[in-house]
């Protein structure tokens, strides 16, 4: 009898939590479909016109730009992080401890502080306002993050594998390429997903560094639908959904793997 | 790899055409873009998100990479004029507009459009012009209001302020403590409490939807409202703001007039840009600007060209300009918005004496206007030497305790070199530069050494410590909630008797997938006084509505709720992962030994998940400490900046209080130092444990 109570209570708690989580999401769906920002979920006449208006404008292009920028930032992050993470995990060299500390240190500086100097650096490089410039800016966020996560994945690989490869005469570089890299592939996928999400959802840096309509990312276009003098809430809500749905789908599919990176990345120092 | 990637991405770039920036939206943006394309084909027109226009202009102009021409409200002229090419020829015939763009007798821009406030009546509820504002009271619709304006913004309150008191500034000081100035605040306080006379807590969007629904008889609003109402011609009637009774005498409202100027940036393209500006200003574009964009051109001649349908809608705004106050362009004005907003929210939300609040706001204003002061050189030397010695000592100690050797230098270079190079160039160098900014004072692109002066300014003011305390409370409360909710839900999801696990799990992580600037905007609206779902629910339950952003505790609660909503899934997922790695047979064995559920949790589950959750919580703590979007978009720091945390304060110093990068950098350094202290304490704690 007690068991039944417990089961019922657990389900009730989960259902309540889900309802609380879902209300804001459903509200966005409702605004997108009715163009009516009142609180009730049932008011307003359904219409696809905000969605159509949004997609026929610059938003479609911005989605493509967002995808390109986010992919490039992810790739750049992974390229610069994978070897480094392996080195920090497997090689012993002077400066390793300091590097690890420095990496953590960069996470504690507010990115606000970074934006003024990065602006100047990109100007010197002639990359201000370009998408490549934004990719570099995003990489300053994704590289340390990817190094941190991937180091966790490399740490989790048993050292016996390296020892065996070493006995066969493999160099560190070969161990990296032939042994470690193939084994952390799932880790790379998860890390990449987070890096992608970070760039895909980013707004302030994109608004600061981009200044041409055709290079705007989706969040910038979305935010420019809203200002002090009024807002196209229907379009804003439709855009919010379009931006969020791909990430939701990936989460839904990869949800089991999502956690592995964070757990492994976290457990070992 | 990098060069190739960069080349591919930037291949689309071509030689630079004329560049124009604006922050218009919807039809205003369309018409502006079309007119520019018509007058100067090939020009690149960029729509900047409104909230970012000022900060972007500041950064771009100081770095010399701004547009050739931009349209912006004139009130920040003080920040730009150094970079502008004065307008020799001026095409406007509206005196208030030209006067507004003058600085030291030089005209810095072409008046383009005007923004001011008038009375917009609902055609069905208040079909005829009213002789006084007070006459509206009798027209209040059932369950609605007679009059509506955004009482959280001094801009919308300006007609009433200037009706009571002619001057906002007295020299360098904010003149809001005089009896005349207090009168308008007293008026708005009483008006919101006078039955259904004046709306409370509705922002612009909500006012519009209420007006459209026939719940408000008249709005104090601008011409932009007409473009938001597709049926403006049938439901809206416009008149200049009529007089109202204040302290027993009749006074006339005098709203702010802001001028959208076309500003030409100095440079080789200035001549072309001036030509384009003059063309855009001209009568040729009157018709579509008024008819479609619902813009009020800064050209009285346009009034004659209004269509018969538009003349009664836009014409009265030209009348209103005769009783308007040109918004000052001084830095004082730019700085005054926040203290004024605080004063206003104080008047609307509380019953405490107004004079005290006015003095507080005036003091807050004085502090914001305080120039960065240099510290004595000896202090700079002492502090910097001490800092250097500390860092050196740490490095030496780190080298002694952790001298690791083993790997061949070439291998290290090959594997770690690229990462290290990237981190140094794009992370450590900007960080060093950014930190160095804390020792300088920035004014219009010129940096002046002030040494530790910024830090002295920061540490010698009580407000910093209040903000620090709020930030700590914010972080602790959030972490506690994230941990409790995340772990509890993970335990529930891990329970063997729970069905539909996959579905619950997938739905519960949704908040994580939604960009947080969107969630924040959603929560801001959920907590709205009049229309938000939360107050709607309270009202449905028979409880009183709560003015969420009116007091510290409720506003803080709103922020925490929003952050809890989007933050718990992370802890939940991490905990779930850890739970799944626990050996189930152990729990079973404990159960057979007679251990209860709590004992099993206390002695098996908790110890097993703790090592996984701890690092996740640290990450979560750092994120929360710097969670800018929630503070900035949910409570917006209200009331009176009390819910601001360090990072949002830093942002305000950098971008909304006149580009004081040095002061902002000092805030960031304080954040960094505090987080360092925390990790150091944690490490020590871990060593002792």
**Oligomerization:** heterodimer
Principal-axes shape call of chain B: globular
Number of helices of chain A: 12
Average predicted confidence as pLDDT of chain A: 83
| Known CATH architecture of chain A | Orthogonal Bundle
Stated plainly, the CATH topology of the largest domain in chain B is called: MetI-like fold
Largest sheet of chain B: 7 strands, mixed
The helicity of chain A comes to over 70%
- Summarize the largest interface: chains and residue counts: A-B, 120 and 134 residues
- Structural class assignment of chain A: mainly alpha
What is the CATH C level class of chain A, in words?
A: Mainly Alpha
Helix/strand-derived category of chain B reads: alpha+beta
Q: Spans of chain A of 5+ residues with little confidence (pLDDT < 50)?
A: 265-269
Q: How much strand content do the residues of chain A show?
A: under 5%
The fourth-level CATH homologous superfamily of chain A is MetI-like
- Report, as a whole number of angstroms, the end-to-end distance of chain B: 46 Å
- CATH topological fold name of chain A: MetI-like fold
- Separation of termini of chain A? 46 Å
CATH superfamily of the largest domain in chain B: MetI-like
Radius of gyration of chain B: 29 Å
Structural commentary:
The complex is a heterodimer of chains A (269) and B (689). With 269 residues, chain A is an all-alpha fold. Chain A contains 12 helices and 2 strands. Chain A has a single domain, classed as Orthogonal Bundle (MetI-like fold). A two-stranded antiparallel sheet of chain A has the order 1-2. In chain A, strand 1 and strand 2 form a beta hairpin. In chain A, helix 7 packs across helix 8. Chain B folds into 4 domains: 128 residues, D-Maltodextrin-Binding Protein, domain 2 (3-Layer(aba) Sandwich); 177 residues, D-Maltodextrin-Binding Protein, domain 2 (3-Layer(aba) Sandwich), CATH 3.40.190; 50 residues, no CATH class; 230 residues, MetI-like fold (Orthogonal Bundle), CATH 1.10.3720. Helix content of chain B is 58%, strand content 11%. In chain B, strands 1, 2, 3, 6, 15, 16 and 17 form a 7-stranded mixed β-sheet that branches. Chain B has a 4-stranded mixed β-sheet with strand order 8-11-7-12. In chain B, strands 4-5 form a two-stranded antiparallel ribbon. The chains are: A mainly alpha (269), B alpha+beta (689). Chains A and B meet through helix 1, helix 3, helix 4, helix 5 and helix 6 of A and helix 1, strand 2, helix 3, helix 8 and helix 9 of B.
